[in-house]
Amino acid sequence: MSEVNVALVGVGRWGRNILRVLKELENEGLIKIAALVDVDLKNVRELAKKYNIGLYFTDYLKLSSIDVDAAIIAVPIHELINVAKSLASLGLHIFVEKPVALNSNNIAELEAIAKSSNVIVQPGFIVRFDPVTYEIKKLMRRYGSPKYMIFKRLSKRPERLRKYSIIYDLTIHDIDLTHYFLGNRRWSVKFVDILESEDSVIQTVNAVLNYGDVLISYITDGNLPIKIREVDIAFNEAYVVADYVKSRIYIREPNSEKRYEVSGEEPLRRELYSFIMRIKGENLSEVPTLEDAYIALKIAEEISMTANSKACSR
Description:
This protein is an alpha/beta fold. The chain starts with a strand and ends with a helix. It folds into 2 domains: 4-124, NAD(P)-binding Rossmann-like Domain (Rossmann fold), CATH 3.40.50.720; 127-264 and 297-313, Dihydrodipicolinate Reductase, domain 2 (2-Layer Sandwich). The model has no long low-confidence stretch (mean pLDDT 96). Strand 8 and strand 9 form a beta hairpin. The longest helix is centred in the C-terminal third of the chain and has 24 residues, at 290-313. It is built from 8 helices and 14 strands. The chain has an 8-stranded mixed β-sheet, covered by helices on one side. The chain has a 6-stranded parallel β-sheet with strand order 3-2-1-4-5-6, with helices on both faces. Helix content is 37%, strand content 29%.
């Protein structure tokens, strides 16, 4: 396969960012943007004109009538799974943004559809593709398994996302990173505290779990007017702070301290490139799978249920 014909479903704020990268890949001859889809006709028409894309629709099922190999889905969280299942059933390869679904059973259903349709379905866990993430993996090979990890994901969430629990919107990234860094291990949720909520929707949460023999803490704040994306990692012989915002690593050892910056390809570009290469037949072992999305969502569900149970008991 030379060029992969790709449709983008959802051209809102994040979809526009995806479109920018898709256009770069198109200019390199890797793909052709076959169509744009969005319920906002004015928006999708303007973007199709701006990027010189001939076809645009307000109904994603219209993709069945054109020559298209794959769909990238960036619709609102509650719509992701239905669009993904419908388009996978049509035989399209699917890239679907996190969390893929709000119920882990739906991911199992999507996996069955993907298998029967013989298509690739890749979940959008973009933080895996960050250069800081690759650096953390290197440090784990150097220092061994950590004693504990503290994930901090803090920033003011936009209004359009505040109707969704922050656990499924942001904490899900750190849950996936835990699985990516540590592999498959037995896990259990030990503690959850809802720090802030609006209209019964969790906006700030602190969750602690055992992941194998590693203690994991997730602090996710959707109200702080400062963007912080950090992972603190305690090893037996070192303490590491990884700053995703500044792309910086800070290491303290008993007799030394070191700070350095990391650089690399834009995570979104690397992520979308991996999806296209998989369609072209490359076997990329560290790319997230639906099984990874299922595991992340199961943990998110358990955190959410623990939080809601605690709230009801107050």
